[in-house]
Amino acid sequence: MAGRLDSRPTEDEVRLFAFQVWSYKQGEVVSLLIHLGSRLGLFAALADGGPMSAAELATRTGYHERWVLEWLRAMGAARLLDWHEDGRFELPAAGAAVLVDETESLFYAGGAFGPPLDPTLVDDVAEAFRTGLGFSFDRQGVAGIHRTEHMLGPWTRLALVPRILPALEGVVGKLEGGARVADVGCGAGLAVLAIAQHFPATEVHGFDISAHAVARARQLAGQQRAHNVVIHHAGAASLPKEPTFDLVLTLDCLHDMTRPTEAIAAIRRAIKDDGTWLIKDIRCAPEPRDNLSNPMAALMYGFSITSCMASALSEPGGAGLGTLGLHPQLLEELVRAAGFTRFSVHDFDEPANLYYEVRP
Ligand SMILES: C[S@@+](CC[C@H](N)C(=O)[O-])C[C@H]1O[C@@H](n2cnc3c(N)ncnc32)[C@H](O)[C@@H]1O
């Protein structure tokens, strides 16, 4: 009892702690307002027009002025817009890069903000604490694939082909000459389509277990009239058993898999002896506490519970690595155990990702 009394917090400590807790609540609400600003084109209109009053923004967008005014004040209070003394509001240039510029800015984040989680999904997350079993990506519905598509889009356009592939030994030459590529866990197929478009002599196969992902990837392939793309509704375990691919990609998905060891073994069988495997996975440390140096670690662990670890525990006996669970040392051990002999890390100075070039 004495111990408890000794540890009674001061009023300042309680105040500070309460502020920290309410700040997360504020973040949740501001997130929704960012989503509305993106969805309604309010940020885009501000980026186009310089400092604006609510009346000017309402006229430009066709929305009701009173609603626009309250949103502007909220965004000003969140310090995402400059709130000028004359009552006008301005989106700074950096704000336009992060919230509007989906085609030019690698830091575009607008796609990350959606409506709050479906309450029944939250029920499933709570239930997972009791049963231990999570749920696959499909449980997140079409919204899940939409979110990943928008988050990945800028990276695929601005980094994959111009920056990442040229760093891999001999890969671009092979793709130009005509090669076979597999993107395992391809999601909406943006990487598949980017490679297929830039390298028309190459044949690109996307594999995913999510019906929503496969439907979206096929739809986009149809829109792009991609002649050199095949999307398979199949998991890593269904890869061909013989050496078939010159390049295999696993982008932000190995840590989501229930059985990454089996997936790695399947990739080893399916890759040609002179092939390359590009892995993009989340930057993280072997000692979980060291992840505290990442200012976004809480977000990452939250994504893990609601998405990545949930997927990796969606079958009994799942590995359950989760968002920050596949660190470079573990990955190297797993790929070497499967018979790969070359493993190198590429650090492109991206805050969230590390890349690995792996060869038989
Ligand atoms: C975070 S998403 C990444 C999608 C895409 N690579 C990207 O970067 O946007 C993870 C994807 O892995 C897929 N996935 C999970 N386990 C899989 C498995 N065993 N085989 C193939 N795909 C799998 C999920 O369905 C989901 O579409």
Task: Please tell me what the overall shape is.
Answer: globular
Question: Helix and strand succession?
Answer: HHHHHEEHHHHEHEHEEHEHHEE
- CATH topology type of the largest domain: Rossmann fold
Taken as a percent bin, the fraction of beta residues is 5-15%
Question: What is the number of beta strands?
Answer: 9
Describe the structure.
- The strands form 2 sheets. The chain has a 7-stranded mixed beta sheet, sandwiched between helices.
- It has 2 domains: 2-102, Arc Repressor Mutant, subunit A, CATH 1.10.10.10; 119-359, 3-Layer(aba) Sandwich (Rossmann fold), CATH 3.40.50.
- The protein has 14 helices and 9 strands.
- A hairpin with a 6-residue loop joins strand 8 and strand 9.
- The model has no long low-confidence stretch (mean pLDDT 95).
- Helix content is 48%, strand content 14%.
- By secondary structure, it is an alpha/beta fold.
- Residues 137, 148, 152, 184-187, 207-210, 213, 235-236, 251-253, 256-257, 263, 311 line the site of S-adenosylmethionine (SAM).
